[in-house]
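Listing S7. Sequence submitted for prediction.
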Amino acid sequence: MCDLMPASQPAEKIGKMKKLRRTLSESFRSIAFKKEDSGFDEICVTKMSTRSCQGTDSVIKPLDTIPEDKKVRVQRTQSGFDPFEKPASQVKRVHSENNACINAKSSSAGKESPKLRRHSSPSSPTSPKFGKADSYEKLEKLGEGSYATVYKGKSKVNGKLVALKVIRLQEEEGTPFTAIREASLLKGLKHANIVLLHDIIHTKETLTLVFEYVHTDLCQYMDKHPGGLHPDNVKLFLYQLLRGLSYIHQRYILHRDLKPQNLLISDTGELKLADFGLARAKSVPSHTYSNEVVTLWYRPPDVLLGSTDYSTCLDMWGVGCIFIEMIQGVAAFPGMKDIQDQLERIFLVIGTPSEDSWPGVNSLPHFKPDRFTVYSAKKLRQAWNKLGYVDHAEELASRFLQCFPKNRLSAQAALNHEYFSNLPPRLWELQDMSSIFTVPNVKLQTESGDSIQVCARRNSHGKASSGSKH
């Protein structure tokens, strides 16, 4: 560490030092302005009324996990603080601690560092860049929601198709809470079965999330193939869904809105979890959450009854509903009226819960025993006959559709269920970013059953494990 300059230095040298300090202060300002013009955007987040600021890293922190020291930085940025420019007091402190070092290098003062020259040279203003709205061309509208419109687009940077989720910003309300959440969580998720977030573009009027383009979703796929999907395809879709969920659950993230519309399907059959607008990072086990999550048909009975203390088991009920819908060709519990109707449909098959079958159910806000007809549990194949045609399907579905949340099978455990035992062992060795379709002989069946079989070995009952389309 350099020593401080003695107090007996001649006045002439002190004058030179002051001049040098001013030169360096101007250099700090110059670097700040050049970085500000370089085109990188940062979304700074604290609340729903969040505003934007410019920075070098496109980092969005989950609202629950911003450290206290980082919150201070975000608030200062919102009030006009330049993140690249050191405060005057900090610059003075740095200079006073390094006076002798500056003096030793005074012969090189006034020469611009080659490294600084390289980094501050602006690229061609006409070349497309990531983080810029004019770097993407809108091709067609794919859908519109209450606060966002989704377009099919094309990147001018690399020519690839993208999905542009354009979120409208209200001056009074700022960036929508769900958009902040979605971008925050997806920035850190890299997996073959989770939709990839390519870019974030922020302007005064809109926040645009740029995703990889995936041409359809499971809902549309099932609509094109009514009556239930080919059993082999159900198995591959379910395996990918569980693989993606296992990945996020291990990182303490709940999706909270599993439904066929939020499961994208590529032209090769790759399934990708999407729409993380309701997702939450569950870092504190005792934390409570809103019970206004998950589309009604796929909402578990504990949440329907008002529970706010839930974990990854929330998503696993939705997996069971989607699994049955893929096999049977109809929604498992298509409630037509309200929450009461939805619960009645569930209890009709699973059985009406009691303190014996579900410890603590009587303490849930919306559970009143006299409001529900008492039903006994049935075999799932009585409600959905096609479960009986596929080996181990009924048993696996029953492990997902448990009223008592803690009894539901986890995503990681489900991947090792006997239902998947006839898939190639290499599937369990894949890296996170590797598709299951990189494994030889793993491919979707045509729904007419004419393509190559994925799993064609026969079981002990003498019928093909893959089955046929029903």
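Caption to Listing S7: primary sequence and predicted structure tokens for the chain studied. Residues 133-212 form a domain with the Phosphorylase Kinase; domain 1 fold (CATH 3.30.200.20). The longest helix spans residues 11-36.
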